[in-house]
Write a structure and sequence with these properties.
Elements: E1 2-4, E2 7-10, E3 23-29, E4 40-44, E5 51-54, E6 56-57, H1 82-97, H2 106-112, H3 116-124, E7 136-140, H4 146-153, E8 157-162, H5 165-175, E9 179-181, H6 184-187, E10 194-200, H7 209-219, E11 220-231, H8 236-241, E12 255-256, H9 259-268, E13 271-279, H10 283-296, H11 309-325, E14 334-341
Parallel strand pairs: 7-8, 7-10, 8-9, 10-11
Antiparallel strand pairs: 1-2, 2-6, 3-4, 4-5, 5-12, 11-14, 13-14
């Protein structure tokens, strides 16, 4: 096993899904966001288009890549979006997904739900889970617990799994959540137990995505729903920005999927794919972040919240364009997959 600036690594030249040897997509890459050590390459399978990190960090050293990661932050319970945005969000969630929230206006929600990009942004905040599906919810890779806290307030019985000990401490101590520290496989949760499982920008981080999806299959109850969202390597953003695309996030993103390769991974794990699509909901943010990386070479902290007004305005135009292309060209920044157990 080799050493990559303090990270133990091994070569990974073959596709996890197909077994074919990959082609080099980019080489000589460094962490542009959180200053993790190492020099990395990205490989791509010529058959299924899966992209993966090469060399691959050893399991015991993956934690070193997250030393400065943003999930350590303490959630701010004060809504930073202001009163009008709260009402808009509550109204759309009540109209489209059936959640009863104080301050919601059903008429407003029905009207605003016709604005596709706005509805996509709002409904992604509950991972596209409807109120009538409520029950036991497991969030895999729950970070500091912000999402679980919100869903608990909306009536779900929530549990989390998170490998980052600092993030787990925040979720437990500040929010009082039930969160297991470690991987999903290490949690040894009861089988056929959860009504819904969410994995929001998680599957790209795990060393064995098929194994993790297989464990989701085991703990999901018959008739339950698994919702996975992950960056789309075929997105319009990647086509525009290439190696500067924020979604690459070298070296923490170990595997990057397109819709086809994510379907293959789910089917290998025994899951039945019920819905597979792309969404442009993060296109504005991805455009601004990727633009900063291309211009400055880095984006410390991974966030572009304080970018100049012109860049934010350009991001809105990018969002509108991508929203129109996301279906026929699978151009959305993120893939959304809804799957269930077979049989």
């Amino acid at each position: 096993m080799n050493n990559n600036e303090g990270i133990h690594v091994k070569e990974a030249r073959h596709c996890l899904l197909c077994g074919d040897e990959g082609d080099i997509l980019y080489s000589g890459l460094r962490d542009r966001l959180f200053d993790a050590p190492g020099i990395w390459s990205l490989m791509q399978c010529p058959k299924c288009q899966l992209v993966w990190l090469n060399p691959r960090p050893a399991a015991d050293d993956i934690g070193k890549l997250y030393a400065n990661y943003f999930t350590h932050e303490i959630p701010n319970n004060q809504n930073r979006n202001g009163g009008l945005r709260r009402v808009v969000k509550a109204s759309i969630l009540q109209s489209s997904y059936g959640y009863r929230i104080d301050g919601a206006n059903r008429v407003m929600g029905s009207a605003l739900s016709y604005v596709g990009p706005l509805k996509a942004i709002v409904c992604s905040s509950v991972r596209w889970l409807e109120a009538h599906e409520g029950g036991r919810l497991l969030d895999v890779g729950c970070g500091n617990g912000r999402f679980l806290d919100q869903m608990r307030q909306l009536g779900w019985e929530v549990t989390g799994v998170e490998p980052d000990g600092a993030a787990v401490s925040v979720a437990r101590e500040k929010l009082g959540l039930q969160v297991f520290e470690g991987s999903l496989e290490e949690a040894r949760l009861p089988g056929s137990h959860f009504d819904a499982i969410t994995m929001n920008h998680v599957i790209e981080h795990v060393p064995d995505p098929i194994g993790t999806l297989r464990e989701c299959h085991r703990v999901l109850r018959p008739g339950g729903k698994l919702v996975v969202s992950t960056p789309n390597i075929r997105s319009m953003g990647f086509q525009v920005f290439g190696e500067y695309w924020r979604g690459l996030e070298v070296p923490r993103h170990l595997h990057l999927f397109c819709p086809q390769s994510l379907r293959i991974a789910a089917e290998h794990a025994g899951l039945r794919v019920m819905e597979l699509r792309t969404t442009a909901r993060s296109a504005r943010w991805m455009y601004a972040s990727s633009s900063c990386i291309r211009r400055d070479g880095t984006l410390p902290g991974g966030s572009s919240e304080r970018t100049e007004a012109l860049l934010r305005l350009q991001g809105l135009g990018f969002l509108a364009q991508e929203h129109g292309l996301r279906g026929p060209r699978e151009a959305g920044e993120e893939i959304v997959m809804v799957a269930g157990r077979r049989g």
